[in-house]
Specification:
single chain; 248 residues; alpha/beta; Carbamate kinase; nine-stranded mixed sheet; 36% helix; 19% strand
């Protein structure tokens, strides 16, 4: 396939995109912490998206470092609200790593956090984030919503609506939404398309109900796909039939 054909095949369908990457995307499977190789892989894909003229915001998770829920058994030692704040702070570590990885590839970025920490990041301000996107900067969004008991999936849906994104991309390690866990049941069926109502009715593992409801209200499509396959972020933004599309 020549370069012109490849370029046409990957011509972006969406002008402004929010990409949700869980903390596991920054780590090596089975290990805790941040993997430089995995972080650079994300950065390289993001750079190619930016070079195609797409405005890209990335919402960061922190499961590779810490999940607030893991302290839920701690009783009164570490309260649930505190544990959730700890999880939000952990997303900033991934955000800083991704920011430096992108800048090592000569991408201009801004890291914004929902919890103020001006020495390392800008506070999240919707109009400022939009302006950065319009200037061709990748905006990394950390700290969830700044509130406990709210998932980063819901934060991604909320930011997608605030920033008027055309689609919310949920990057995962599996190639879409299945009827059952494909790692437990090899006969599980992958859905190519779903409606918001189907997801909520069948309690499918796409995003939590609050995130799905936010997207349904705005008729904002969600694409769940495997970003570990190099180039899939570009294919998703080009509108290729990959993963599972959840829409009205």
């Amino acid at each position: 396939m020549d370069h012109a054909t490849t370029t046409d095949a990957l011509r972006p369908k969406y002008a402004r995109v929010v990409l949700k990457i869980s903390g596991e995307g920054f780590g090596t499977p089975g290990k805790a912490g941040i993997s430089i190789d995995e972080t650079l892989s994300i950065a390289r894909q993001a750079k190619r998206v930016l070079e195609r003229g797409v405005q890209l915001a990335i919402v960061i998770g922190a499961g590779n470092i810490l999940r607030g829920e893991q302290f839920s058994a701690g009783g009164e030692v570490i309260r649930k609200a505190t544990a959730h704040y700890m999880g939000m702070l952990a997303t900033v570590l991934n955000g800083l790593a991704l920011q430096d990885a992108l800048e090592s590839l000569n991408c201009e970025t801004r890291l914004q956090t929902a919890i103020k920490m001006e020495t390392v990041a800008e506070p999240y301000i919707r109009r400022r984030a939009i302006r950065h996107l319009e200037k061709g900067r990748i905006v990394i969004l950390a700290g969830g919503t700044g509130n406990p008991f709210v998932t980063t999936d819901t934060a991604a849906a909320l930011r997608s609506r605030e920033l008027e994104a055309n689609i919310l991309l949920k990057a995962t390690r599996v190639d879409g939404v299945y009827s059952e866990d494909p790692e437990l049941n090899p006969h599980a069926v992958r859905y190519e398309k779903l409606t918001f109502s189907q997801v909520l009715r069948d309690n499918l593992r796409v995003m939590d109900a609050a995130a799905i409801s936010l997207c349904r209200e705005a008729k904002l499509p969600i694409l769940v796909f495997n970003f570990k396959r190099d180039g899939n972020i570009e294919r998703a933004i080009a509108g290729h039939t990959i993963g599972t599309l959840v829409s009205e």
